Amino acid sequence: MTAQPIIRFENVTKKYDDETTVLKNVSFELERGKFYTLLGPSGCGKTTILRLIAGFIEPTEGNIYFDGQKINHVPANDRQVNTVFQDYALFPHLNVYENIAFGLRTKKVKKDEIDKRVKEALKFVNLTGFENREIAEMSGGQRQRVAIARAIINDPEIVLLDEPLSALDLKLRTEMQYELRELQQRLGKTFIFVTHDQEEALAMSDEIFVINEGSIQQSGTPIDIYDEPINRFVADFIGESNIVPGVMVEDYKVQFAGKTFECVDQGLNPNEKVDIVIRPEDLEITSIDSGKMSVKVDTQLFRGVHYELSTYDEDGNEWLVHSTKKADVGSKIGLDFDPEAIHVMRLNETEEEFDKRLESYGAGRP
């Protein structure tokens, strides 16, 4: 028997008073105890989904269910949900203990119970001993932990996180990614994390929902999303990609860059126009004779763990390459790739738009 989803959106649309539509007929289900990420550019609708789950706003159309019960009009304070906001929303005049205890005090919880639960929450977020510390004396990462402790102290079924790492520096943000993921696994709660940072989403999530212009473009595990993007937007937004127009000649054969290559895709129509994605790390530098295509190296940057090369083929089309091998700027090299490295995507544009793009393809650098 399939477990009841903890959250279910059923054809949810959200419009504001000026008739701006921020969510368009969105449907999805979330399982209990997983780490979900809503990923997309600013204004795509991901924070609106979070606010709908929290109960801060209501859907214009459609229904939202929690454990099978419709919650469209259930107020925020009656939902088993707590939110960690981007600015943390801590009370500067209260110390760490009182910030975390605030929600319990408003519910008239007994002092001994408050003390017990605050200490448990502090232990969970590795802040034992910081009870009397003033918020102004805390670092960004410590304030983040205080906000999380305040969110989990009421033992909510769902913890919502609205871009909580965006204000931290890179090193601290990376550390907090590990801590958040470990905390979620220890608590066994459902975490729903909002970000526009692809690396955060890939590193932390059990499942990612890629959102654009109020619609879910694709959902799946980080590996699914990265390795098998469903359209140009997802491929371009998740990591770096070489995206070129092509033709699916037949099963396991695709044509792009003026040549026909073997691939692992099937089930498309013969000679169907498609988009081809090859990730930069899947391109191997080799000799011109050994490569499937030859390119000229235009620029090369050292990125710490690899070199990033901007190269151009004989038609002037750019190919981005990530490699542990160096190449001389201005030299010609071969590029090799496996059939599995070629990802074929159906078009999410009209054939007229595709043909126009195809005309411009090859009109790059001479």
What's the rounded overall pLDDT mean?
A: 90
Instruction: Characterize the biggest β-sheet.
Output: 6 strands, mixed
- Reported CATH architecture of the largest domain: 3-Layer(aba) Sandwich
Question: Residue share in helices?
Answer: 25-40%
Descriptors:
globular; P-loop_NTPase; 6-stranded mixed beta sheet; 26% helix; 20 strands; OB fold (Dihydrolipoamide Acetyltransferase, E2P); Rossmann fold; alpha+beta; ATP-binding; 366 residues; 9 helices
Provide a descriptive summary of the structure in words.
The chain is α+β, with helices and mostly antiparallel strands and 366 residues long. The chain folds into two domains: 7-227, P-loop containing nucleotide triphosphate hydrolases (Rossmann fold); 241-360, Beta Barrel (OB fold (Dihydrolipoamide Acetyltransferase, E2P)). 26% of the residues lie in helices and 32% in strands. The protein contains nine helices and 20 strands. It has helices spanning 46-54, 96-106, 111-124, 140-152, 170-187, 198-204, 222-227, 232-237, 351-360; strands at 7-15, 21-30, 35-39, 61-66, 69-70, 81-84, 158-162, 190-195, 207-212, 215-220, 242-250, 253-256, 259-262, 272-278, 284-286, 293-302, 307-313, 318-323, 332-336, 343-346. The strands form four sheets. Strands 6-7-8-3-9-10 form a six-stranded mixed beta sheet, with helices on both faces. Helix 3 (111-124) packs across helix 4. It starts with 6 loop residues before the first strand and ends in a 6-residue tail after the last helix. The model has no long low-confidence stretch (mean pLDDT 90).
